[in-house]
From TrEMBL:
Keywords: Signal
Protein name listed in UniProt: DUF6299 domain-containing protein
Alphabetized InterPro entries for the sequence: DUF6299, TAT_signal
Extent of the signal sequence: 1-26
Domain DUF6299: 38-149
Source taxonomy: Bacteria, Bacillati, Actinomycetota, Actinomycetes, Kitasatosporales
Length: 150
């Protein structure tokens, strides 16, 4: 009983000391430019289709803290939004600055035509996790675009 009473008294005393101690000052606010560095990817509103069927898509990206290789990938869909075709990939630099990306590729099984399309761009990192690198997504953007003949 004595041990329990002593432990209770010590705990109560510590709680009173914590309540009486002055509050620690709040952490300083982050600099304005640190709050502005958000990861993002954009898609330009116009893409190009060459005579050979290759498609070129472009936009901008911004990412930070990549510990493995990072890429900007893009897909395009036209008549059926549930069917997307890959259009190239670009190596990304995750330094917090805005960069341009341009992907060019020729979808194997479809002929895209000038006109309305849906493009999705993704900034994806292959993070080392043991033996196998696993995908980690930094940013994604889907947008309606116009494909033009070039």
């Amino acid at each position: 009983m004595r041990v329990r009473s002593a432990a209770l008294t010590a705990t109560a005393g510590a709680a009173l000391l914590l309540l009486a101690a002055p509050a620690a000052p709040a952490a300083p606010a982050a600099p304005d430019d640190a709050r502005l560095v958000a990861e993002s990817v954009t898609v330009d509103p116009v893409g190009r289709i060459a005579a050979d069927g290759s498609v070129t898509l472009s936009g901008t990206y911004r990412c930070t803290g990549g510990s493995g290789p990072v890429f900007v990938s893009s897909t395009v869909s036209q008549s059926d939004p549930s069917v997307r075709y890959g259009v190239g990939g670009t190596r990304a630099v995750c330094d917090g600055l805005e960069h341009r990306w341009v992907n060019t590729g020729t979808p194997d099984t479809v002929v895209l035509k000038p006109g309305a399309a849906r493009v999705e761009a993704t900034v994806m990192e292959l993070r080392p996790m043991g033996i196998v690198p696993l995908p980690s997504f930094h940013a994604r953007q889907a947008q309606d675009v116009t494909l033009t003949a070039s």
